[in-house]
Design brief:
This protein has 564 residues and is α/β, with parallel strands linked by helices. Helix content is 19%, strand content 17%. The strands form five sheets. Strands 9-10-8-12-14-16-17 form a seven-stranded parallel beta sheet, with helices on both faces. Helix 7 (306-316) runs parallel beside helix 8 and helix 9 (444-461) packs parallel to helix 11. The chain is globular and about 65 Å long. Mean pLDDT is 84; it is low at 1-48, 157-161 and 509-564.
């Protein structure tokens, strides 16, 4: 089964320079859930994921098996090693595929003794289950799971003391202390994220954008399929966003696009929220303006495969990826505003655990499908900080996923008007990049970089903070939400100033033994801003609107968080 993510950005994109507002229906996405009540088992059953037809699978070989040694010795990950596998392992794959009259087209080598297996045709749901069972019974194979189709997850008067001079900062309600913003302006007197590296695993980067000047470190392109990458090669050292536009009928292996879709510039929008150049009298401000971005490209035309994502996360966190130069700037924070539907696969959990063990903190979007986050990945995985989306009025964004797996919320906007969204970096072009610009988007993809940026502010003050300490501080200093119309929206809305105060010792340290609602002294109370402009146009709304019987959650019940 190719776990497919419904491409439902449910966003409004506004090109600021032209004041043009266009609605977009694009890829909804899934993210790795962090601390919270994740699945009780770190290993998700393969059968639970086998609920769709698929022609791609991730095979995890036992560490000391002959096949694992072939994978480990591959000249470059992402390349076909089918002919190099031991004859017994090739025969095992061929026999399992032959039962359904299909062939094994290629086997690509990837990190952590995993291989991406591509068949000549899709198997039915029942065939997928039987194919998996057959392979898992073979010697040397630890697990087999459908490859997960990865897409981007979005597209759904101030008392501040450090207001920057950026041209469009007045439109960035999400950065201030009012309108349930993250209060970044009151954090900047203590920290701007200097010395912290954040990897953004996404569509790549618009490196010539003026708001990225001096903000980027060398990155990498981990799209192995040249057709998806649009750069005529596989893995390479150029993480530039080539555009992810598609035409109606494209992406047939993922169900086919129902209409033409323009390029999203999703990765640059996310990275801009984290670390756009600030106080340059231009554009917008980033949460952590002195942090540095390592752009890691995994999403292109029709998204990507989770096999490529395994290598991307491994490299971003400082792990070894054959055929790829080592990352000279291992990321302390990895932002994943991407994902796919389905419970957390074992290969994702293994990859995440290894990245966290290297010292990275993974922050992931909860997804935009108005469903329980446990049904998406990597948001439903352990050892990840999962972020839901909130609005200018302090409520859950109507599209945001929810549940006990959500650790915290952050501004992601609402689809009712453009000014209620998140402003960040983009390009004027609808296809290949041409002219740098700015755009408004809504989604948990936009919420997530607010948390990544806040974590960068914290780590700049105390680089020794562990992931479990970071999430505890974030939760115990969060601003209470005005309302949560689902069973759980996390501990509240991230409060950058309160979190930074906590790290610097200006506020009491959090309890690590029980969940506590944020102290009233740790946050400001601000009324929402004025009503939206009537000039904005509505985009398509999610299938489920917020319940009118919303309940208050000013003192949320937050389960104890843990890394395992």
């Amino acid at each position: 089964m190719t776990t497919t993510l419904s491409r439902k950005r449910v966003l409004i994109i506004a090109i600021v320079s032209t004041v043009a507002v266009v609605s977009i229906i694009a890829a909804g996405l899934v993210y790795a859930g962090v601390f919270g009540n994740r699945s009780s088992s770190a290993k998700a059953s393969s059968s639970t994921a086998a609920n769709e037809p698929s022609d791609r699978f991730i095979v995890s070989y036992a560490e000391n098996s002959a096949a694992a040694k072939v994978i480990a010795s591959a000249k470059a990950y992402g390349e076909n090693v089918l002919e190099s596998l031991p004859s017994e392992d090739r025969q095992t794959l061929d026999n399992a595929a032959g039962k359904f009259s299909v062939k094994v087209e290629n086997v690509t080598a990837h990190s952590l003794s995993t291989a991406g297996v591509k068949l000549s045709d899709k198997l039915t749901v029942n065939q997928v289950k039987e194919f998996i069972s057959t392979l898992e019974a073979a010697n040397g194979i630890e697990s087999v799971e459908p490859d997960m189709h990865m897409t981007a997850v979005d597209n759904a008067s101030s008392e501040d003391s450090n207001v920057p001079d950026d041209q469009y900062f007045s439109k960035q309600w999400d950065m201030t202390s009012g309108s349930y913003g993250i209060n970044a302006t009151n954090a900047w007197s203590q920290s701007t994220g200097k010395g912290v590296t954040v990897a953004v695993i996404d569509t790549g980067i618009l490196s010539n954008h003026p708001d990225f000047e001096g903000q980027l470190l060398p990155g990498y392109d981990f799209i192995s399929d040249p057709a998806r990458a649009r750069d005529n090669d596989g893995y390479d050292a150029d993480p530039s966003d080539e555009g992810d536009w598609i035409k109606q009928g494209d992406c047939s292996s993922e169900g086919g696009a129902s209409k033409d879709q323009t390029s999203s510039w999703h990765g640059s929008h996310v990275a801009g929220t984290i670390a756009a150049r600030t106080n340059n009298k231009n554009g917008v401000a980033g949460v952590a303006p002195d942090a540095k971005i390592v752009p890691v490209r995994v999403l292109g035309r029709c998204g990507s495969t989770s096999a490529d994502t395994i290598d991307a996360v491994t490299w971003a966190s400082g792990g070894k990826v054959n055929g790829v130069p080592d990352n000279e700037n291992p990321a302390r924070i990895i932002n994943m505003s991407i994902g796919g539907t389905g419970s957390c696969p074992r290969f994702f959990q293994k990859t995440i655990d290894a990245a966290v063990a290297r010292g990275s903190i993974i922050v992931a979007a909860a997804g935009n499908d108005d469903q329980d986050v446990r049904n998406v990945a990597p948001a439903g995985c352990k050892n990840v900080i999962t972020v839901g989306a909130s609005t200018k009025t302090g409520a859950r964004s109507s599209f945001s996923n929810y549940g006990t797996g959500v650790d915290i919320s952050a501004p992601g906007g609402e689809i009712d008007a453009a000014e209620n969204g998140i402003l960040s970096l983009a390009d004027k072009s609808t296809k290949a990049p041409q002219d740098p610009d700015y755009a408004i988007m809504m989604g948990t993809s936009q919420a997530t970089p607010h948390v990544s940026g806040t974590v960068a502010l914290m780590l700049a003050l105390n680089p020794d903070l562990k992931a479990e300490e970071v999430v505890t501080i974030l939760q115990n200093t969060a601003t209470p939400m005005a309302e949560c119309d689902r069973k759980a929206c996390g501990a509240g809305i991230v409060n950058a100033a309160a979190a930074v105060d906590n790290v610097s010792g200006k506020s009491p340290g959090p309890s690590t033994t029980a969940s506590a609602s944020p102290s009233a002294s740790d946050k400001e109370s601000s009324s929402p801003s004025a009503s939206p402009s009537t000039s904005s146009r509505r985009s398509s709304s999610p299938s489920t609107s917020p319940s009118t019987s919303s309940r208050k959650s000013s003192t949320p019940s937050v389960p104890p968080r843990r890394f395992q």
